[in-house]
Each structure stands twice: as structure tokens, then as C-alpha cells.
């Protein structure tokens, strides 16, 4: 159903239901949550999430499971997806969605919950729930406007249209397009930050995330507090000393 492997200081989580285009059954969502908890205990510096096969990152929810449920079961299903995907916000390392092929509905919501998104040249993505008389329920209505703005988010959600990778890049939904091997492109992006200290990376992520929900004055106070915490780390002392001594810093995540 999914595979979690370590490759050096990077972990790779692969959704492995290619026969179902890696659709998000409720069992798979629970397994993702368990895998994220496991990866959180590993000595890694980045996590990449991708899909098995060439057709899909994740084609969305397993539609058959969505039918015939009670009101409370429907609400619990949305809360399960939101709760599992929210684990990516608090994971100790940055995450990258390597989007191969289709990323629709819950699949795109999973990708949007990651820190970064790298798309292959044939990637297609969208939130087509409106075509089923539904709306996104795993965070799409909240994360998409934070990434692309209210106007574009409303357009994509209310029309349910599909984006090709270049358009997704142009509007800021994805960070980069992979010209060659997608997984290697994701690892290359990870390599741009894995050499830095985890405390500073976590504090920076927290500051930016809070900027999306706080008024400017409160956000600036939060930045000052988190910046002060960063100064108190051993990594900061090492980074400043290395700069003065004109050498490469050796961060120890302390």
C-alpha cells in the first residue's frame, strides 16, 4: 500500500497502489499517518512523498468509499484526512511532494500540505470535487488560497479545471519542474537545505506559517521571538564563528 525507505539523509514515502492510481482509501490515509510518525523518529533531514508508477502521484479519494456513509462518518472522514495531512506541518524536517502524473482532489491536497512541490513534465493537477457536487475536504479550500491567492483558488475550486505542470509553476502552486528524473530533482531540491541546521529550518518554517494567519504586527513580534531562539542555538554560534573564520560551518542540530 505504501513504502517508506531511507536514502542517506532523505526518506522517501511512496504511495503504492498503482492499479488504483494511488487513490486515497481510508486505510491508505491511516497508513500515511503511521509512516509520517515513523519517519519523524528517524535521523533524516528531508522527506519526499511520491506515487508508484508513471501515471499518478495520487488520483484523489477512493470514490467507492465515499458513498453510502452517515453524516458523522462523512465528517470523520474529512477530519481524518485533515489530521493526517496536518502532520506534515509539524514534522521536524521539510517535505517535498514529487508529483508524477495525476494529482487530483485529495492527492493535490496531500501535495499542498508538503513544504515544497516538484512536478514532472506530464503532471496534471486540480481539485475536481465540484464536478461530483462536493467541495475539497482534506484542506484544499484552506491551503490553495495560501499558495496561489484567493482569486485563483476560487477559479480552480469552482470550475474544477485541470492544470498542466507549466501553468501550476507559473501560478506558484508548484516550486519547480523536473527536466529529468523526478525523484532526483526532488532530492536535488532537498540537497539545497539539508546542509543547514534543523533548529533554524524549523524556526523559519514556523515563522512563515504563522505569517499566513497573524496580523503584521503580531507576526513581526513572533519573528523577533523565533529569531531570538535561533540565536540561542549552538548551530547559530557555529554559523557565526564559521563566517568570521571563513570556513564552512558544521551544524549539529543543537
Could you explain the architecture of this structure?
- It is a single chain.
- The mean pLDDT is 94.
- The radius of gyration is 19 Å and the shape is globular.
- The chain has 2 domains: 2-191, Alpha-Beta Complex (2-enoyl-CoA Hydratase, Chain A, domain 1); 198-244.
- Helices cover 47% and strands 16% of the residues.
- It has helices at residues 26-40, 71-90, 106-113, 140-148, 150-159, 165-170, 182-191, 198-211, 216-231, 234-244; strands at residues 2-7, 10-15, 46-51, 56-58, 95-99, 102-104, 116-119, 124-126, 163-164, 176-177.
- Helix 1 packs parallel to helix 2, helix 3 (106-113) crosses helix 4 (140-148) and helix 4 packs across helix 5 (150-159).
- By secondary structure, the chain is an alpha/beta fold.
Any guess at the CATH architecture of the largest domain?
Alpha-Beta Complex
Q: Based on helices, strands and strand pairing, what is the structural class?
A: alpha/beta
Tally of DSSP β-strands: 10
Q: Largest sheet, order of strands side by side?
A: 1-2-3-5-7-10
Q: What is the number of domains?
A: 2
Short note summarizing the structure:
By secondary structure, the chain is of the alpha/beta class.
Produce the secondary structure layout.
Layout lengths: L1 E6 L2 E6 L10 H15 L5 E6 L4 E3 L12 H20 L4 E5 L2 E3 L1 H8 L2 E4 L4 E3 L13 H9 L1 H10 L3 E2 H6 L5 E2 L4 H10 L6 H14 L4 H16 L2 H11 L10
Parallel strand pairs: 2-3, 3-5, 4-6, 5-7, 6-8, 7-10
Antiparallel strand pairs: 1-2, 8-9
Helix pairs in contact: 1-2, 2-3, 3-4, 4-5, 8-9
Amino acid at each position: 500500500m505504501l513504502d517508506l525507505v531511507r536514502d542517506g539523509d532523505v526518506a522517501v514515502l511512496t504511495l503504492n497502489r498503482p492499479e488504483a492510481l494511488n487513490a486515497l482509501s481510508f486505510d491508505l490515509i491511516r497508513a500515511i499517518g503511521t509512516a509520517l510518525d515513523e519517519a519523524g523518529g528517524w535521523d533524516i533531514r528531508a522527506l519526499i512523498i511520491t506515487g508508484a508508477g508513471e501515471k499518478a502521484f495520487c488520483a484523489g479519494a477512493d470514490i467507492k468509499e465515499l458513498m453510502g456513509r452517515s453524516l458523522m462518518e462523512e465528517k470523520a472522514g474529512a477530519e481524518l484526512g485533515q489530521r493526517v495531512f496536518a502532520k506534515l506541518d509539524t514534522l521536524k524536517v521539510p517535505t517535498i511532494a514529487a508529483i508524477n502524473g495525476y494529482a487530483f482532489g485529495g492527492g493535490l491536497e496531500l501535495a499542498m500540505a508538503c513544504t515544497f512541490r516538484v512536478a514532472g513534465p506530464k503532471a496534471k493537477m486540480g481539485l475536481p470535487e465540484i464536478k461530483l457536487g462536493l467541495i475539497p475536504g482534506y484542506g484544499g479550500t484552506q491551503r490553495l488560497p495560501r499558495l496561489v491567492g484567493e482569486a485563483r483558488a476560487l477559479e480552480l475550486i469552482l470550475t474544477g479545471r485541470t492544470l498542466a505542470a507549466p501553468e501550476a509553476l507559473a501560478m506558484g502552486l508548484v516550486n519547480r519542474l523536473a527536466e529529468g528524473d523526478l525523484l532526483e530533482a526532488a532530492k536535488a531540491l532537498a540537497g539545497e537545505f539539508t546542509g543547514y541546521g534543523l533548529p533554524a529550518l524549523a524556526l523559519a518554517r514556523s515563522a512563515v506559517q504563522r505569517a499566513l494567519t497573524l496580523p503584521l504586527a503580531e507576526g513581526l513580534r513572533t519573528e523577533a521571538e523565533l529569531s531570538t531562539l535561533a540565536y540561542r542555538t549552538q548551530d547559530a554560534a557555529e554559523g557565526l564563528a564559521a563566517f568570521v573564520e571563513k570556513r564552512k560551518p558544521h551544524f549539529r542540530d543543537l
